[in-house]
Structure prediction request, 228 residues.
Amino acid sequence: MFSLIAASVFFLLIHFGVSGTRLRDVLVARMGAGPYQGVFALVSIIGVLWIIHAYGRAPTVELWGQLLGLRPLAFPVVFLAFLLAGIGLATPSPTQAGRESKLSQGTDIARGIVRITRHPFLWGVALWALVHLIVNGDLASLIVFGSFFLLAVGGTASIDAKRRRIFGEDWNRFAQTTSNVPFAAILAGRNQLRGAVSEIGIVRPVIAAAAYALIFVFHERLFGAPLV
Prediction:
Protein backbone atom coordinates (compact mmCIF):
# COMPACT_ATOMS: atom_id res chain seq x y z
CA MET A 1 0.00 0.00 0.00
CA PHE A 2 2.95 2.34 0.66
CA SER A 3 4.02 2.14 -2.99
CA LEU A 4 0.50 3.05 -4.13
CA ILE A 5 0.35 6.04 -1.79
CA ALA A 6 3.80 7.17 -2.91
CA ALA A 7 2.85 6.83 -6.59
CA SER A 8 -0.37 8.80 -6.10
CA VAL A 9 1.40 11.55 -4.15
CA PHE A 10 4.11 11.73 -6.82
CA PHE A 11 1.51 12.04 -9.59
CA LEU A 12 -0.38 14.78 -7.77
CA LEU A 13 2.79 16.69 -6.90
CA ILE A 14 4.14 16.88 -10.43
CA HIS A 15 0.83 18.39 -11.52
CA PHE A 16 -0.12 20.65 -8.65
CA GLY A 17 3.48 21.48 -7.71
CA VAL A 18 4.76 22.13 -11.24
CA SER A 19 2.10 22.37 -13.92
CA GLY A 20 0.12 25.58 -13.65
CA THR A 21 2.55 27.19 -11.20
CA ARG A 22 5.24 29.82 -11.60
CA LEU A 23 7.81 27.01 -11.37
CA ARG A 24 6.46 25.81 -14.71
CA ASP A 25 6.99 29.30 -16.14
CA VAL A 26 10.62 29.22 -15.00
CA LEU A 27 11.21 25.74 -16.43
CA VAL A 28 9.64 26.69 -19.77
CA ALA A 29 11.80 29.83 -19.93
CA ARG A 30 14.96 27.76 -19.33
CA MET A 31 14.12 24.63 -21.34
CA GLY A 32 11.77 25.89 -24.01
CA ALA A 33 8.09 24.95 -24.33
CA GLY A 34 8.67 21.85 -26.47
CA PRO A 35 11.33 20.16 -24.32
CA TYR A 36 9.39 20.99 -21.15
CA GLN A 37 6.20 19.41 -22.49
CA GLY A 38 8.14 16.34 -23.58
CA VAL A 39 9.80 15.87 -20.19
CA PHE A 40 6.55 16.52 -18.33
CA ALA A 41 4.68 14.01 -20.52
CA LEU A 42 7.36 11.37 -19.90
CA VAL A 43 7.31 11.93 -16.13
CA SER A 44 3.49 11.78 -16.17
CA ILE A 45 3.54 8.46 -18.04
CA ILE A 46 6.00 7.08 -15.50
CA GLY A 47 3.65 8.22 -12.73
CA VAL A 48 0.63 6.53 -14.33
CA LEU A 49 2.53 3.26 -14.90
CA TRP A 50 3.72 3.34 -11.28
CA ILE A 51 0.14 3.79 -10.07
CA ILE A 52 -1.13 0.94 -12.25
CA HIS A 53 1.62 -1.38 -11.06
CA ALA A 54 1.15 -0.49 -7.39
CA TYR A 55 -2.65 -0.71 -7.62
CA GLY A 56 -2.43 -4.24 -9.01
CA ARG A 57 -0.27 -5.32 -6.09
CA ALA A 58 -2.08 -3.45 -3.30
CA PRO A 59 -3.83 -5.54 -0.63
CA THR A 60 -7.63 -5.47 -0.52
CA VAL A 61 -8.78 -3.38 2.41
CA GLU A 62 -12.54 -2.96 2.26
CA LEU A 63 -14.10 0.27 3.44
CA TRP A 64 -17.80 0.35 2.45
CA GLY A 65 -17.43 -2.61 0.07
CA GLN A 66 -18.49 -3.01 -3.55
CA LEU A 67 -21.83 -1.38 -4.28
CA LEU A 68 -22.92 -3.77 -7.02
CA GLY A 69 -26.46 -2.40 -6.95
CA LEU A 70 -25.16 0.89 -8.35
CA ARG A 71 -23.70 -0.67 -11.48
CA PRO A 72 -26.82 -0.09 -13.65
CA LEU A 73 -26.50 3.62 -12.79
CA ALA A 74 -22.71 3.61 -13.13
CA PHE A 75 -22.70 2.44 -16.75
CA PRO A 76 -24.55 5.45 -18.25
CA VAL A 77 -22.55 7.88 -16.07
CA VAL A 78 -19.27 6.38 -17.33
CA PHE A 79 -20.68 6.57 -20.88
CA LEU A 80 -21.29 10.29 -20.30
CA ALA A 81 -17.72 10.56 -19.01
CA PHE A 82 -16.44 8.99 -22.24
CA LEU A 83 -18.50 11.43 -24.30
CA LEU A 84 -17.15 14.43 -22.41
CA ALA A 85 -13.55 13.21 -22.56
CA GLY A 86 -13.64 12.00 -26.17
CA ILE A 87 -15.47 14.99 -27.63
CA GLY A 88 -13.33 17.31 -25.51
CA LEU A 89 -10.07 15.84 -26.81
CA ALA A 90 -11.28 16.24 -30.39
CA THR A 91 -12.52 19.82 -29.97
CA PRO A 92 -9.96 22.66 -30.33
CA SER A 93 -9.87 24.79 -27.19
CA PRO A 94 -7.37 27.23 -25.64
CA THR A 95 -7.49 25.16 -22.45
CA GLN A 96 -5.60 22.37 -24.26
CA ALA A 97 -1.81 22.32 -24.18
CA GLY A 98 -0.39 23.84 -27.35
CA ARG A 99 -3.67 25.47 -28.41
CA GLU A 100 -3.35 28.64 -26.35
CA SER A 101 -3.04 30.71 -29.55
CA LYS A 102 -6.72 30.10 -30.23
CA LEU A 103 -7.47 32.78 -27.67
CA SER A 104 -6.81 35.22 -30.50
CA GLN A 105 -10.10 34.06 -32.04
CA GLY A 106 -11.94 35.67 -29.14
CA THR A 107 -15.32 34.29 -28.12
CA ASP A 108 -15.78 32.47 -31.46
CA ILE A 109 -13.78 29.53 -30.10
CA ALA A 110 -16.44 28.84 -27.45
CA ARG A 111 -18.36 26.41 -29.64
CA GLY A 112 -19.57 22.84 -29.45
CA ILE A 113 -18.77 21.07 -26.20
CA VAL A 114 -16.89 24.20 -25.04
CA ARG A 115 -20.29 25.90 -24.72
CA ILE A 116 -21.06 23.41 -21.94
CA THR A 117 -17.67 23.47 -20.20
CA ARG A 118 -14.22 24.72 -21.17
CA HIS A 119 -12.74 21.59 -19.55
CA PRO A 120 -14.75 18.68 -21.02
CA PHE A 121 -11.91 16.15 -20.90
CA LEU A 122 -11.11 16.80 -17.25
CA TRP A 123 -14.77 16.67 -16.21
CA GLY A 124 -15.02 13.36 -18.06
CA VAL A 125 -12.06 12.04 -16.08
CA ALA A 126 -13.62 13.36 -12.85
CA LEU A 127 -16.91 11.54 -13.52
CA TRP A 128 -15.09 8.31 -14.45
CA ALA A 129 -12.94 8.45 -11.31
CA LEU A 130 -15.85 9.30 -9.00
CA VAL A 131 -17.95 6.37 -10.24
CA HIS A 132 -15.07 3.90 -9.80
CA LEU A 133 -14.28 5.31 -6.36
CA ILE A 134 -17.88 4.93 -5.13
CA VAL A 135 -18.67 1.54 -6.63
CA ASN A 136 -15.45 -0.27 -5.65
CA GLY A 137 -15.39 0.76 -1.99
CA ASP A 138 -11.86 -0.37 -1.00
CA LEU A 139 -8.85 1.59 0.23
CA ALA A 140 -6.68 1.11 -2.85
CA SER A 141 -9.50 2.31 -5.13
CA LEU A 142 -10.12 5.28 -2.86
CA ILE A 143 -6.45 6.27 -3.15
CA VAL A 144 -6.20 5.79 -6.93
CA PHE A 145 -9.53 7.10 -8.13
CA GLY A 146 -9.62 9.75 -5.43
CA SER A 147 -6.28 11.01 -6.73
CA PHE A 148 -7.53 11.13 -10.32
CA PHE A 149 -10.71 12.90 -9.19
CA LEU A 150 -8.73 15.52 -7.27
CA LEU A 151 -6.34 15.96 -10.18
CA ALA A 152 -9.15 16.40 -12.70
CA VAL A 153 -11.21 18.87 -10.66
CA GLY A 154 -8.16 20.72 -9.33
CA GLY A 155 -6.64 20.71 -12.80
CA THR A 156 -9.49 22.82 -14.18
CA ALA A 157 -8.72 25.56 -11.66
CA SER A 158 -4.98 25.22 -12.23
CA ILE A 159 -5.30 25.60 -16.00
CA ASP A 160 -7.59 28.60 -15.61
CA ALA A 161 -5.12 30.29 -13.26
CA LYS A 162 -2.19 29.61 -15.62
CA ARG A 163 -4.03 30.93 -18.68
CA ARG A 164 -5.24 34.00 -16.78
CA ARG A 165 -1.72 34.76 -15.55
CA ILE A 166 -0.12 34.44 -18.98
CA PHE A 167 -2.81 35.74 -21.34
CA GLY A 168 -4.64 38.26 -19.16
CA GLU A 169 -7.50 40.04 -20.91
CA ASP A 170 -7.58 37.62 -23.87
CA TRP A 171 -8.26 34.81 -21.43
CA ASN A 172 -10.81 36.81 -19.46
CA ARG A 173 -12.85 37.48 -22.61
CA PHE A 174 -12.89 33.78 -23.46
CA ALA A 175 -13.65 32.71 -19.88
CA GLN A 176 -16.54 35.13 -19.67
CA THR A 177 -18.38 33.23 -22.41
CA THR A 178 -17.66 29.77 -21.02
CA SER A 179 -17.65 28.07 -17.64
CA ASN A 180 -15.53 25.60 -15.77
CA VAL A 181 -18.53 23.87 -14.15
CA PRO A 182 -20.65 22.23 -16.87
CA PHE A 183 -23.69 24.27 -17.99
CA ALA A 184 -22.93 27.15 -15.58
CA ALA A 185 -22.34 29.70 -18.36
CA ILE A 186 -25.49 28.55 -20.18
CA LEU A 187 -27.63 28.82 -17.04
CA ALA A 188 -26.16 32.27 -16.38
CA GLY A 189 -27.05 33.41 -19.90
CA ARG A 190 -23.42 33.87 -20.97
CA ASN A 191 -23.67 31.19 -23.66
CA GLN A 192 -26.34 29.16 -25.42
CA LEU A 193 -26.85 25.44 -25.75
CA ARG A 194 -28.54 26.00 -29.10
CA GLY A 195 -26.19 25.05 -31.87
CA ALA A 196 -23.91 22.93 -29.69
CA VAL A 197 -25.19 19.62 -31.08
CA SER A 198 -24.65 20.61 -34.71
CA GLU A 199 -21.23 22.08 -33.86
CA ILE A 200 -20.19 18.85 -32.14
CA GLY A 201 -21.32 16.82 -35.13
CA ILE A 202 -21.69 13.05 -35.30
CA VAL A 203 -18.11 11.81 -35.74
CA ARG A 204 -16.80 12.81 -32.29
CA PRO A 205 -19.65 11.17 -30.32
CA VAL A 206 -19.46 8.01 -32.44
CA ILE A 207 -15.72 7.64 -31.77
CA ALA A 208 -16.26 8.24 -28.03
CA ALA A 209 -19.11 5.70 -27.99
CA ALA A 210 -16.95 3.16 -29.84
CA ALA A 211 -14.16 3.61 -27.27
CA TYR A 212 -16.69 3.06 -24.47
CA ALA A 213 -18.01 -0.08 -26.18
CA LEU A 214 -14.50 -1.52 -26.54
CA ILE A 215 -13.73 -0.91 -22.86
CA PHE A 216 -17.14 -2.32 -21.90
CA VAL A 217 -16.46 -5.58 -23.77
CA PHE A 218 -12.77 -6.02 -22.97
CA HIS A 219 -12.52 -4.41 -19.51
CA GLU A 220 -11.81 -7.59 -17.57
CA ARG A 221 -9.32 -8.84 -20.16
CA LEU A 222 -7.47 -5.51 -20.24
CA PHE A 223 -7.51 -4.61 -16.56
CA GLY A 224 -8.01 -7.95 -14.82
CA ALA A 225 -11.17 -6.80 -13.05
CA PRO A 226 -14.91 -6.81 -13.80
CA LEU A 227 -16.42 -3.69 -15.32
CA VAL A 228 -16.62 -0.80 -12.81
